[in-house]
Amino acid sequence: xxxxxxxxxxxxxxxxxxxxxxxxxxxxxxxxxxxxxxxxxxxxxxxxxxxxxxxxxxxxxxxxxxxxxxxxxxxxxxxxxxxxxxxxxxxxxxxxxxxxxxxxxxxxxxxxxxxxxxxxxxxxxxxxxxxxxxxxxxxxxxxxxxxxxxxxxxxx
Length: 156
Known about the structure:
Elements: H1 12-34, H2 40-57, H3 60-70, H4 76-98, H5 102-125, H6 132-154
Helix pairs in contact: 1-4, 2-6, 4-5, 5-6
């Protein structure tokens, strides 16, 4: 059953867009302010840290709402758009910082977004026992390691 403050009729996708669009706009603003100033992986670690702190400080209601929203099939197109927008914004930043092709940048941006979605989902299943901060840090460290290794190989 839907929490009483969440819409239960067709406005759900627009409700989700009302949440996701400001988040994408904020990410875009942060990228524009930091691109060329803060190295990409340092920037990504900062936004992940902010996300973890915000998510873990909101309490059980946030967890319950997030679980509910992630299980609503009619929101799938909105979730996909949200994730696609994140990947596109990060792709541009990676290309700017490293001068790699769009496909290479998109693959690594997709890895970061996907890995952190997976960590968030695991945390939603166990918000007390699962260490979201450690998991997202490990994701970024590993993708960075793979990225630097791959770019070293392609640049030699």
